[in-house]
Amino acid sequence: MEKEITLVLSPKQASSTALYTPLIANKLKVSLKQISYTKVINRSIDARGRNVKINLKLLVCIDSPPKEKGKINIKYKNVKNSEPVLIIGAGPAGLFAALKLLEIGLKPIIIERGKDVISRKRDIADIHKNKALNPDSNYAFGEGGAGTFSDGKLYTRSKKRGSNKNVLNVLTQHGASEDILIDAHPHIGSDKLPGIIKSIRESIIEYGGEIHFNTCLKSLLIESNSIKGIVTKNNEKIESRAVILATGHSARDVYFMLNELGIMLEAKSFAMGVRIEHPQELIDSIQYSCDFRGPYLPAASYGLVQQVKERGVYSFCMCPGGIIVPASTAADEMVVNGMSPSNRNTRWANSGIVVEIRPEDIKNVNINALIGLDYQQKFEKLAFANGGEGQIAPAQNMVDFVEGRISNKLAESSFRPSIQTSAMHEWIPEQIRFRLQEGFKAFGKKMKGYYTNEATLIGVESRTSSPVRIPRDRETMQHPQIKGLFPSGEGSGYAGGITSSAIDGENTAVKVDEYLK
Ligand SMILES: Cc1cc2nc3c(=O)[nH]c(=O)nc-3n(C[C@H](O)[C@H](O)[C@H](O)COP(=O)(O)OP(=O)(O)OC[C@H]3O[C@@H](n4cnc5c(N)ncnc54)[C@H](O)[C@@H]3O)c2cc1C
Prior knowledge:
By secondary structure, the protein is an alpha+beta fold. It has helices at 11-14, 17-28, 92-104, 117-128, 165-173, 193-206, 252-260, 280-288, 359-362, 371-385, 398-403, 424-427, 430-446, 498-516; strands at residues 2-9, 35-46, 53-62, 84-88, 107-111, 210-212, 217-223, 226-232, 237-239, 243-245, 266-267, 270-279, 305-308, 311-319, 323-326, 336-339, 348-357, 393-397, 419-421, 456-461, 468-469, 485-487.
């Protein structure tokens, strides 16, 4: 007999099967011997009370083996001689589109401007050493896209695109821990992601697909409003009846190229602000109401939101036990982002704190499709001008920023190459500045201890989502003007984050198959 039960446990009880199995037996009124199998289906933390609780949802078999066969292994077809489909970009959208094409029986040919994940690691190490930033190989560009050296948080709030189960399954099939299948907030970790991305590439090649690194899309080949292929920056023409455009939201050159070709684009809302870094111990003590987290609880996280003068101010991509990284794609711009290793064990907690920006907030007349892109770039150039030589980020203590004072001393930060004190309250655009200031004060009331000069603002967090949408037909997922052009993932403006971009990639692959038939 199989049963599903939920146990509410202390962190220590939840840490070991040997500790919680007697509690299962007690709850089900059976003997320990009768329990032949247990499996955690879901695990979540309840930190609302003084004593933190872990909710474990379990599948229990009594006097019988489990019926389920474990995780599903997806089968891929050999597509060596099948119809080719061009995919531009090897981020989560592009890679998951490619894997879905292998399942369907079409041949993915991926064009990627950046390098393979191992070579890319060297370029990223160079940024940390404050050497020149390679505009085609950095935290955003290269194999695995922005997802490779990301935090690897895998939850998506959006259910409308489809289930994330398949994406999680594929990731475990390529080396991710099966814990991601049960955790309420699954997380892979920046140390594990490169290996998984490499394994996905190996599957694509093994089954007859292709990946071309250091190959940048220059233009599209279009005839009679139908896609015929692409032209690369080396002026190589590659033909295909369908192109999945999965270039992410950092590829500004792609939006400019589409605009020049007269392909319709739309301005959309996005968000920008700063990244904030607190000591992890402080966040633990606030969230778990304790002086010391102990060995059984993970580094605590938070989520904050506040309306300030009709716009949202909110925390974004919170990284417990993480680090802040330089995520720019141009040497004269400064962009920061956050990530954490799988064990989330650094001394810092960081999060983006961003302000919603609508196209009409930038300019209320003559709004063109690229207006947000321009505003975003100006913000990043301002941050660069107010930081130090190379990728040294501008920084200010939280209370000093709110009260309009320069910080004489900054706390030690996880950010490399380094941070430099800056009067951020003076150069951050007014509509973002005052909302951040009001937001921080409000967050301090929601989380006692959060509003403190122990926290450092590091600038700027500007790549939260795309300021541009490449429109597509709801049903066919093709651009309404160009047959066979499938905008996909975060750069299309219809997805955001690893999981939703990956699901979007899978969905576009299915639509490509329908189109080619
Ligand atoms: C440091 C960091 C941490 C993050 N943490 C998380 C997290 O924890 N959870 C989460 O859900 N999301 C996180 N994100 C965001 C997440 O990585 C993105 O949402 C996701 O990668 C978007 O996937 P995508 O495939 O649509 O685009 P991208 O990942 O941006 O991939 C686009 C790819 O296209 C390539 N490309 C661009 N232009 C061209 C061209 N002209 N020719 C050829 N190739 C081109 C790029 O090199 C890139 O590889 C993080 C991002 C960063 C930078």
